Amino acid sequence: MFYVLILYLLVQGLESYLLTPLIQAKAVSLPPAVVILNQLVMGALFGILGIALATPIAAAATIPLRHWFGAPDEDDPPG
């Protein structure tokens, strides 16, 4: 029984701290380090709600930054 608890905690930790940020990073075209750092900061400041809103806020914040600094959008065709 104790081994099942340890295995569950290990799998849950890997899923929460590694797999979820990687999937979210691919979905919103942000580096995984930015997603993880953003979730840590927003979680420390605003708790569970901050963690839930961290990735969408970061994705929305990158749109004007990419526009201002001339980075091409993923949706724009080349040329």
List its traits:
79 residues; mainly alpha; 81% helix; transmembrane; AI-2E family transporter; membrane; transmembrane helix; AI-2E-like
| Main β-sheet description | none
Order of helices and strands: HH
Taken together, the total number of domains comes to 1
Number of helices: 2
**Which value, in Å, is the CA radius of gyration?**
16 Å
Q: Briefly note the structural class of the backbone.
A: mainly alpha
Poorly predicted ranges: none
- Average pLDDT: 84
Q: What is the percent of helical residues? A: over 70%
Keywords: Membrane, Transmembrane, Transmembrane helix
Subcellular location: Membrane
Membrane topology: Multi-pass membrane protein
Transmembrane segments: 40-63
Can I get a quick summary?
The chain has 79 residues and is mainly alpha-helical. The chain is 81% helix and 0% strand.
Structural write-up:
By secondary structure, the protein is an all-alpha fold. It has one domain (2-68). Helix content is 81%, strand content 0%. The chain contains two helices and no strands. It is elongated, with a radius of gyration of 16 Å. The mean pLDDT is 84.
What's the topology here?
Elements (H helix, E strand, L loop, with lengths): L1 H27 L3 H37 L11
